[in-house]
Amino acid sequence: MTKGGPSRRGEPMRLADMPLHDPFVVADRERRTYHLYTSNVPSVSGVDGTGTMVYRSPDLRDWTRPVVVFRTAAQEGIWATDGAWAPEVHAWEGRYYLFTTLHDENRPLPVPAPNQWGVPFRTPTHMRGTITAVSDSLLGPFTVLDPSRPVPPEHLMTLDGTLYVDPSGQPWMVYAHEWLQTIDGTMEAVRLAPDLSRTVGDPVYLFKASDAPWTAEQIPAGVPHQLAPYVTDGPQLYRTPDGSLLMLWSTYEKNTAGGDGTVSGGYVQTYAVSRSGELTGPWRQHRPLVRDDSGHGMLFHTFDGRLMMILHRPFENARGKLYEMELRGHELSVLRRREDLDGGG
């Protein structure tokens, strides 16, 4: 096998060879196997259609060819068949629940009113949101719980829903409300029913992308940076040893390109902390953990107890990158990049 090239069937795959956007790892201690979920890539899985596939490994270095665990085409009456972005699998009440984002460009949403700066919305929006599906196995097949609609309110354009269970045992879905509807993207949360199939009550606002002060610090004075989108992507919640609540999330770091005031920037992996330990915050934003067109990361523990973060880089034609992490109280930092596992690059 050559670095960055496809492996022959029967040979283990390496992260450098594996198409991997929005990676999510489940460490199955009973079977001493890491399960790495991502959107289905038919040329790799050998299965056509939109869905979710999973790679497996005993050591984070050598991986099996992926198995498809969810297909939208197999879900009777499902409201959307495109996307299947950002799949996550969570253990809950003795079963496994898949969260993944679908969308339907043929189901437009009403155009929002102009934002707080009076800027009209020109980009059409359509139905997009996270569904939940259930299985008795990490290898599926997963069956959608409510095929008629996404879990968050369907008039909102949302993505990247993740599971959070508060100290009282109440499950929540935390998701990103798309900048396409808000310009300044937000993180929001909504309570879930015990079977995770539907919401209970109204969404709760957590924070907005521009709350991270560094997002616009490279933009010169006088440039109307509020006219450019502020993106929220990829929330994942983690309880720290000191009782704080940490949220990994991704956005774009802004700067100006050329002399016309155009705002652009690169994808970054960052995080926020709720020192109160409450989902409602207040949330304090921290500086990015990883730049270089990297993001949508998540934290997990290895079988020998190390805290690891996996993310994808670059945004296009993404591959998984692994980092050994350190927590000091509620402060998260990168100890080292694990190029021995992810193949460098």
Please write out the topology:
Elements: E1 24-28, E2 33-39, H1 42-45, E3 51-57, E4 67-71, E5 82-92, E6 95-108, E7 126-135, E8 143-144, E9 158-165, E10 171-177, H2 179-182, E11 186-192, E12 199-208, E13 233-239, E14 245-257, E15 262-274, E16 283-285, E17 295-301, E18 307-313, E19 319-328, E20 331-337, H3 339-342
Antiparallel strand pairs: 1-2, 2-3, 3-4, 5-6, 6-7, 7-8, 9-10, 10-11, 11-12, 13-14, 14-15, 15-16, 17-18, 18-19, 19-20
Summarize the structure.
The protein is mainly β and about 350 residues long. The protein has three helices and 20 strands.
Query: What average pLDDT do the residues reach?
Result: 90
> Helix/strand-derived class?
mainly beta
Q: What Rg do the Cα atoms give?
A: 20 Å
Specify the helix fraction band.
under 10%
Can you tell me the CATH topology? Answer: Tachylectin-2, Chain A
Count of helical stretches? 3
- CATH hierarchy: architecture: 5 Propeller
Oligomer designation: single chain
Global geometry = globular
- CATH fourth-tier homologous superfamily: Glycosyl hydrolase domain, family 43
Largest sheet: 4 strands, antiparallel
CATH class: Mainly Beta
What's the structural domain tally? 1
Pathway: Glycan metabolism; L-arabinan degradation
Pfam families: Glyco_hydro_43 (PF04616)
Keywords: Glycosidase, Hydrolase
InterPro entries: GH43_arabinanases, Glyco_hydro_43, Glyco_hydro_beta-prop_sf
